[in-house]
Specification:
The complex is a heterodimer of chains A (401) and B (259). Chain A has 401 residues and is α/β, with parallel strands linked by helices. Chain A is 43% helix and 17% strand. Chain A is globular, with a radius of gyration of 19 Å. The model of chain A has no long low-confidence stretch (mean pLDDT 95). Chain B has 259 residues and is of the alpha/beta class. Chain B has a single domain, classed as TIM Barrel. Chain B is built from 12 helices and 9 strands. Chain B starts with a helix and ends in a 5-residue tail after the last helix. The mean pLDDT of chain B is 95. The chains are: A alpha/beta (401), B alpha/beta (259). At the A-B interface, helix 1, helix 8 and strand 11 of A face helix 5 and strand 6 of B. Chain A: Keywords: Amino-acid biosynthesis, Aromatic amino acid biosynthesis, Lyase, Pyridoxal phosphate, Tryptophan biosynthesis. Chain A: It catalyses: (1S,2R)-1-C-(indol-3-yl)glycerol 3-phosphate + L-serine = D-glyceraldehyde 3-phosphate + L-tryptophan + H2O. Chain A: Tetramer of two alpha and two beta chains. Chain A: Pfam families: PALP. Chain A: This is Tryptophan synthase beta chain.
């Protein structure tokens, strides 16, 4: 099994912990608590209990027979993370980090959210474990995900609308980090994706790897072999790293990370940090980043709020440079088409994020054999996006301001 | 004109039995063309050294005032190169050391070695990077040493004793004692243990100890300066300059004399 990160939290030249000194003691405390929790059978047993009885794992690996027939290529399997409690993979991580919060003796948590999925998953576990919860969300996202804001409030969380910048995920992370800096003594930051300062990328990967671990076992049961290819969408990259990590050493399994191409890469209005960015430091780690020549971070653009982020987790940057994973992008329009395709062929409305991975199947199918197996990580369900999707179809596909 | 000038400036102040005052301004806020004039004004008002902010799109260590100043500077088209070029123009005649405060990414994008070299050429004495903890210093120390730019380290209220020792031992230029748990910006009061904390830092630090974050009134300046070698004042100066209230700035700096 691949042994990254190093003890100092580096993945090749990527990763690290670029945070103010005020946060460093908390970062080190978290690392210690995380390492100890891995060796603690009681903690692991508690995790297993909540994942099974509360989250509803394991999730099915579903053979999408009609989608397979329509695309005319490899057998397509969907890893149904959309069937988790709260409707996405995010809760795999929040339940783990909430238990770590308790282990550290902290009673409050802060989190950022883009689409609201991570915010809802954090508010949910906070309610479950009796933690005080504050969520930072960009004001633009508050507007386009109003239902999720109410959902979080219903769960007892306080939602703070962030006016800074463009009012999207990047700005929400900035404010959440500032809040954490001022409240670090009694508050844990439940980081939602496999980015941020070490140990967050590792913590999130290790809590999300259950996606890949289950898939590996399930596909061997179903097909008697490993898949020829795996596809997952990449914003910060948590569902993708969770799916990919257990397969990294299986060199015959091709892996594809699909970024948000927004209005198309040539327009510059996209969120494809791995495909189009260059290495830089944002939110505590060194990784591929959308930035201008002067090192100012650029705004990302995507119809999918969950992929609307200019950075990406450092392990993805490492896997890209190592040539182990191929990263590519699909546009808003292609993602919307994929929503319609999957809804009508399989009766599954995917989240706009996950629809990027489904869209990529259309590109892979023609170049793969019928005997091949292709696994897609269906990271979340599309209920939250129905309004966005409807507006987009009514306006002919373009939803950017 | 590199870190030796910074050391000399602090020495002059302490030999006169005075305390240091380091104001912060955001380069490009109010127009890059006025930058050198602002530096001269602050020097003439009695600043020991000047902290020059280079704007960054995502300043996680800064509160609302400096965030807003950074946005104004970026909207005015301020770049790293333009600031260094502007500052270099008056290098020969300038009689106050300059320290740059920015985040790691603009430096990284410029190229660490090229940045250190350009800073030396522009007469910059030191560099403060609030998102670069001890653990990641390796990225910059060699280049800064080569060009004799001091890496000014921050020590926090949350720093553990072993981290405080390590930071104090490596201190160069000055040790920046962060006086609040949080971001930059005005505060009404400080925690009770702050005085003891600053005194302990002063005992073990290899460089002068300056208190900063939240320092905004002559009373703060006097109160904090009695425990250490002086103060850094950011948000209040940025705000007063933005409002065009230079008298308030001059009065704040003068308060170091009574400290």
């Amino acid at each position: 099994m691949a042994t990254y990160p190093t003890e100092t939290g580096h993945y090749g030249s990527f990763g690290g912990r670029f945070v103010p000194e005020t946060l460093m003691p908390a970062i080190l405390e978290l690392e210690k608590a995380f390492i100890e929790s891995k060796e603690d059978p009681a903690f692991q047993e508690e995790m297993r209990y909540y994942l099974k009885q509360y989250v509803g794992r394991e999730t099915p690996l579903y053979y999408a027979e009609r989608l397979t027939a329509i695309l005319g290529g490899p057998k397509i399997y969907l890893k149904r993370e959309d069937l988790n409690h709260t409707g996405a993979h995010k809760i795999n991580n929040t339940i783990g980090q909430a238990l770590l919060t308790q282990r550290m003796g902290k009673k409050k948590v802060v989190a950022e959210t883009g689409a609201g999925q991570h915010g809802v998953a954090t508010a949910t576990v906070s309610a479950l474990l009796g933690l005080e919860c504050i969520i930072f969300m960009g004001k633009e996202d508050v507007r386009r995900q109003a239902l999720n804001v109410y959902r979080m409030e219903l769960l007892g969380a306080q939602v703070v609308s962030v006016d800074q910048g463009n009012g999207t995920l990047k700005d929400a992370v900035n404010e959440a980090m500032r809040y954490w800096t001022a409240n670090v003594e009694d508050t844990h930051y439940i980081f939602g994706t496999a980015a941020g300062p070490h140990p967050f990328p590792q913590i999130v990967r290790d809590f999300q790897r259950i996606i890949g671990d289950e898939t590996r076992k399930q596909i061997i049961e179903a097909e008697g072999k490993l898949p020829e290819a795996i596809v997952a969408c990449v914003g910060g990259g948590s569902n993708a790293i969770g799916m990919f990590y257990p397969f990294v050493d299986d060199r015959d399994v091709k892996m594809y990370g699909v970024e948000a191409g927004g209005m198309g890469l040539p327009t510059g209005k996209h969120a494809a940090s791995l495909t189009e960015g260059k290495a830089g430091i944002l939110h505590g780690s060194l990784s591929y980043l959308l930035q201008n020549d002067d090192g100012q971070v650029q705004e990302a653009h995507s119809i999918s709020a969950g992929l609307d982020y200019p950075g990406v987790g450092p392990e993805h940057s490492y896997l890209k440079d190592a040539g182990r994973v191929t990263y590519d992008a699909v546009t808003d329009e292609e993602a919307l088409e994929a929503v319609r395709l999957l809804s009508r062929t399989e009766g599954i409305i995917p989240a706009l994020e996950s629809a990027h991975a489904v869209a990529y199947c259309k590109k892979l199918a023609p170049v793969m054999d019928k005997e091949d197996v292709l696994v897609v990580c269906l990271s979340g369900r599309g209920d939250k996006d129905v309004n966005t999707i409807r507006e987009a179809h009514e306006t002919g596909g373009n939803l950017h301001d | 004109m590199t870190k030796a000038q910074l050391d000399a400036a602090f020495l002059t102040v302490s030999e006169a039995g005075e305390k240091a005052f380091v104001p912060y301004i955001m380069a490009g806020d109010g127009g890059l063309e006025s930058l050198n004039e602002r530096i001269r004004f602050l020097a003439d008002s009695g600043a020991t050294a000047i902290e020059l902010g280079l704007p960054f799109s995502d300043p996680v260590a800064d509160g609302p005032t400096i965030q807003a100043a950074g946005i104004r500077a970026l909207e005015a088209g301020t770049t790293v190169q333009a600031v260094l070029d502007e500052v270099a123009k008056e290098k020969a005649s300038r009689n106050v050391p300059l320290v740059i405060m920015t985040y790691l990414n603009p430096v990284f994008a410029y190229g660490v070695e090229a940045f250190a070299s350009a800073c030396a050429a522009a007469g910059i004495s030191g560099l403060i990077l609030p998102d670069l903890p001890l653990e990641e210093e390796g990225l910059v120390v060699e280049a800064l040493q080569k060009h004799e730019i001091a890496l000014i380290r921050l020590v926090a209220l949350t720093s553990t004793p072993d981290r405080i020792r390590a930071l104090a031992e490596r201190a160069e230029g000055f040790l920046y004692a962060v006086t609040v748990a949080g971001t930059t910006g005005e505060r009404a009061t400080f925690v009770d243990q702050l005085g003891t904390h600053l005194q302990e830092l002063k005992e073990i630090s290899k460089a002068p100890v300056l208190a900063g974050f939240g320092v905004s009134t002559p009373e703060h300046v006097k109160e904090l300066s009695q425990y250490c070698d002086g103060v850094v004042v950011g948000s209040k100066i940025v705000d007063a300059l933005h409002q065009g209230d230079r008298q308030q700035v001059a009065e704040l700096i003068r308060s170091r004399k009574q400290a």
